[in-house]
Design brief:
By secondary structure, this protein is an alpha+beta fold. The protein has 26 helices and eight strands. Strands 1, 2, 3, 4, 5, 6, 7 and 8 form an eight-stranded antiparallel sheet that branches. A hairpin with an 8-residue loop joins β2 and β3. α4 packs antiparallel against α9 and α21 packs across α23. About 20% of the residues have low confidence. This is Tonoplast monosaccharide transporter2. It comes from Rhynchospora pubera. GO terms for molecular function: transmembrane transporter activity. Keywords: Membrane, Phosphoprotein, Transmembrane, Transmembrane helix, Transport.
Length: about 725
């Protein structure tokens, strides 16, 4: 997965520049107000710092819709250019008005990076390590702050510190970011598929995954174009092909034949009588069981992870070692005589590559848009499951590190298939998730039980799988008379011209996801991070740190900058721990585990400011509380809201939805920043931290009742779960 990791690191440099700018302006403003005589103009001083926030808020309002239209990569390129231009202008800045203009342009670059980098990483990262890679922006931002503080500290030690140099240095890393966005970063494969650029999307995906067979994930990206839909939860017991003979076919009419791309029977599925774990989890809460206020989406997601937290979301999962061999007979079937070689050839034919239609819609090689794009099957039989794999592969096959390697695998233990029945003209897309494995009458290795399920005691081996069954994204009933076969019934280019529709935001699943995204962003801003940052220099001053540094010969300004650098440095190890746990313990777990610690830290700050414990005790308790707050915040409430917002929306409206969430973030940031001084004057530090503690209590309840666990799940499956949960609610 080196390709995906390197791309995520390169993209997160945009957040490094944001952190760099935040720290630089905090140090430079100490010298700016002296040169322009702003000591008596606190409004202008505040505008110099806050103009970038205003710029970020302005550009965020339309960045999502534009990125859905022109792509993620062009917007990241624009971000790097804006960073570069603002750095040049700040390096010049003859007066305060030019400086304000530069800060506004800088805010435009910040807004694009903060909004779109998490989206870009989510759309390019494998499901197994998506949380780790999407924590990189938080790490890069804090790392950029630390490096910038070190640079500003060095400049502050000069006889005549030059603030233009501090701000203008931004030009150098912005040039690196520009070069990477132009020459290294590919376009998001999900965006390419949404525009019908299938061949380019496959090339990008092969580079990101480091393997040739990405047919299953390509099919998943096509299915991700759907917004909404009527999804049902079913349960299957999947058996090897030798379990299905002519005699058993006559005796057991409930069995479903599952076919791969090769000739002959590949798999057999038997519908399970009774509810699956997924369905029972939703119905339990929808009937107002143990937690009446809990959103059904939460237990629905939780049913996938329960009893196996160490399996899902970890790329080191062993899953079930017999999956690769259980259906080995499927690999022995020869291809039919009329096998469509076009779907297997590479680089042959003008305008078409590796079985995918041309990117040029309307070209000669793309005039038959009804032809299947990802899988082709000559045999026509009732009740078939059409695998996404090209060539022969086994269902639920895993690699040595637990990752899915078969064409059917789409990440996180999920598989993709299609079912088509000629009798009733039914064509369905199925997301399969293994719920148990065993053989010879046992369920060895099973980690989720199925209420009411009947296991076939005579089976040599079987897999128990829950299924999300829905209409394919690009299905057209008008084509059924032409007997098409394959996951893509209509070329994505036919739907690309539609783009995102505002009415899609009213789909129940999308609306549910927006509630989660907007709510978590609002609560993050009002959880107290800005207040604690504002109070940190005062706390460390009370602890005597500034006196110690002054005795070493530093000026008060240099001592203040060094204190901020050391505070930022403490965050980096904590973010590293969060990166390790994000895909192992999960987003929801980290939030529920860290928010109580935030509450405790804030309560201690309230107590030490209400009662007189003496200068030494006050300084010690305050310093420890602030350090704990910082370290715990960056492990949970810092990165996770952006990670969740980049995961929970369908592809077609992802840009618009995350822009709405990002706009909420920036508006909340501005409100908190400007109301903090007034709150300090009105209710004091104890009152401010008391309000923050109350907000954190509300945040804990919100996360527990509304925020699902999304670790290790493909983005398209997450959107499907929101649709199912909204339907149940």
């Amino acid at each position: 997965m080196a390709g995906s990791v390197l791309v995520a690191i390169a993209a997160s440099i945009g957040n490094l520049l944001q952190g760099w700018d935040n720290a630089t302006i905090a140090g430079a403003v100490l010298y700016i107000k002296k040169e322009f005589n702003l000591e008596s103009e606190p409004m202008i001083e505040g505008l110099i710092v806050a103009t970038s926030l205003i710029g970020a808020t302005i550009i965020t309002t339309f960045s999502g819709a534009v990125s859905d239209s022109v792509g993620r990569r062009p917007m990241l390129i624009a971000s790097s250019i804006l960073y570069f231009i603002s750095g040049l202008i700040m390096l010049w800045s003859p007066n305060v008005y030019i400086l304000l203009l530069a800060r506004l342009i800088d805010g435009f670059g910040i807004g694009l990076a903060v909004t779109l980098v998490p989206v870009y990483i989510s759309e390019t990262a494998p499901a197994e390590i998506r949380g780790l890679l999407n924590t990189l922006p938080q790490f890069s931002g804090s790392g950029g702050m630390f490096l910038s503080y070190c640079m500003v500290f060095g400049v502050s030690l000069m006889p005549r510190p030059e603030w233009r140099t501090m701000l203008g240095v931004l030009v150098i890393p912005s040039l690196l970011y520009f070069a990477l966005t132009i020459f290294y970063l590919p376009e998001s494969p999900r965006w390419l598929v949404s525009k019908g650029k299938m061949a380019e999307a496959k090339r990008v995906l092969q580079g990101l995954r480091g393997r040739e067979d990405v047919s299953g994930e390509m099919a998943l990206l096509v299915e991700g174009l759907e917004v909404g839909g009527d999804t049902e939860i079913e349960e299957y017991i999947i058996e090897p092909p030798d379990a299905f003979t002519e005699e058993t076919e006559q005796d057991d009419t409930e069995k479903i034949k599952l076919y791969g791309p090769g000739a002959g029977l590949s798999w057999v599925a038997r519908p399970v009588k009774g509810q699956s774990t997924l369905a029972s989890a939703v119905s339990l809460v929808s009937r107002q069981g143990t937690v009446p206020l809990m959103d059904p989406i939460v237990p629905l997601f939780g049913s996938v992870h329960e009893k196996a937290p160490e399996l899902l979301g970890s790329m080191r999962s062993t899953l079930f070692p017999n999956f690769g061999s259980m259906f080995s007979m499927a690999e022995q079937h020869p291809r039919p005589d009329n096998w469509d070689e076009e779907s297997q050839r590479e680089g042959e034919g003008e305008g078409e590559e590796e079985g995918y239609g041309s990117d040029n819609v309307g070209g000669e090689s793309d005039d038959n848009l009804q032809s299947p794009l990802l899988s082709r099957q000559a045999t026509s039989m009732e009740g078939k499951e059409i695998s996404a794999a090209q060539g022969n592969s086994s269902l639920f096959q895993v690699g040595p590190n637990g990752e899915a390697v078969s064409g059917m695998g789409i990440g996180g233990g999920w598989q993709l298939a299609w079912k088509w029945s000629e009798v009733d003209g039914e064509f369905k897309r199925i997301y399969l998730h293994q719920e148990g494995a065993g053989g010879a009458g046992s369920v060895r290795g099973s980690f989720v039980s199925v209420p009411g399920g009947e296991m076939p005691e005579e089976s040599v081996g079987y897999i128990q799988a829950a299924a999300l069954v829905s209409q394919p994204a690009l299905f057209s009933k008008d084509l059924m008379g032409q007997n098409p076969v394959g996951p893509a019934m209509v070329h994505p280019a036919e739907t690309a011209v539609k783009g995102p529709k505002w009415k899609d935001l009213l789909e129940p699943g999308v609306t549910r996801a927006l509630i989660v995204g907007i709510g978590i962003q609002i609560l993050q801003q009002f959880a107290g991070i800005n207040g604690v940052l504002y109070y940190t220099p005062q706390i460390l001053e009370q602890a005597g740190v500034d006196v110690l540094l002054s005795n070493m010969g530093m000026s008060s300004d240099s001592a203040s900058i060094l204190i901020s650098a050391l505070t930022t440095l403490l965050m980096l190890p904590s973010i590293g721990v969060a990166m390790r746990l994000m895909d192992f313990s999960g987003r929801r777990f980290l939030l529920l585990a860290t928010i109580p610690i935030l509450i405790a830290s804030l309560i201690i700050l309230v107590i030490v400011n209400l009662f007189d414990f003496g200068m030494v005790v006050h300084a010690i308790l305050s310093t420890i509380s602030v350090i704990v707050y910082f370290c715990v915040f960056v492990m949970g409430f810092g990165p996770i809201p952006n990670i969740l917002c980049a995961e929970i929306f369908p592809t077609r409206v992802r840009g618009v939805c995350i822009a709405i969430c990002a706009l909420t973030f920036w508006v909340g940031d501005i409100i908190v920043t400007y109301t903090l001084p007034m709150m300090l004057n009105a209710i004091g530090l104890a009152g401010v931290f008391g309000i923050y503690a109350i907000v954190c209590v509300v945040a804990f309840a919100f996360v527990y009742l509304r925020v699902p666990e999304t670790k290790g799940m493909p983005l398209e499956v997450i959107s499907e779960f929101f649709a199912v949960g909204a339907k149940q609610a």
